[in-house]
Amino acid sequence: MANLGFDFAPDFRPLAARMRPREISEYIGQAHLLGEGQPLRKALEANRAHSMLL
What we know:
Radius of gyration: 18 Å
Order of helices and strands: HHH
Largest sheet: none
Helix content: 25-40%
Structural class: mainly alpha
Oligomer: single chain
Shape: elongated
């Protein structure tokens, strides 16, 4: 893509993509599933996430 004299931000991703949590610690809420020792957190940490509806 040619630079037409405009200075663009280096990150062109939509805001939702930039704000999306990347680690479990970045999630807010759902402590009954994602808190220390809780079911979903255990599955993710063990790399054994399975198909589920939430």
